[in-house]
Design goal:
Layout (H helix, E strand, L loop, with lengths): L1 E9 L9 H20 L3 E6 L4 E4 L5 E4 L7 E10 L2 H8 L10 E6 L6
Antiparallel strand pairs: 1-5, 1-6, 2-5, 3-4
Length: 114
């Protein structure tokens, strides 16, 4: 079984002001989706990313990031186990980020012989 990273991207809506109930409903969607992957024994790890960061450039200059001109954010990731790329993509098709117009980038980890 191979490991795949699913990277969650979306464009935040600055006008969206969720209620506490909205937030709890969204958290439940994510818990249910991740729980379904875990129930199949295919969950490795996940985490949500903060909105702040630093970018180290090739000249070693450090700037605040992600860049302000980029409207899309990476909200988090999940690492899942799958038999092949097709199975990983099928898992991603039910990701809650898709319901808000976001998308999921699915990438396989490269195996490097040490």
């Amino acid at each position: 079984m191979n490991e795949f990273m699913m990277i969650f991207r979306h464009v935040p809506n600055p006008d969206y002001k969720p209620t506490p109930e909205d937030i709890q409903a969204e958290i439940k969607k994510w818990q249910d989706w991740i729980g379904g992957i875990a129930a199949q024994g295919k969950f490795s790890s996940t985490n949500q990313l903060s909105y702040e960061g630093k970018v180290v450039q090739s000249d070693r200059m450090v700037t605040d990031g992600p860049y302000a001109e980029v409207k899309e954010i990476i909200g988090g990731y999940l690492i899942a186990k799958a038999e092949n790329f097709g199975e990983a993509v099928e898992m991603a098709k039910s990701c809650p980020v898709l319901e808000i117009g976001g998308h999921v980038e699915v990438r396989e980890f490269m195996l490097i012989n040490a």
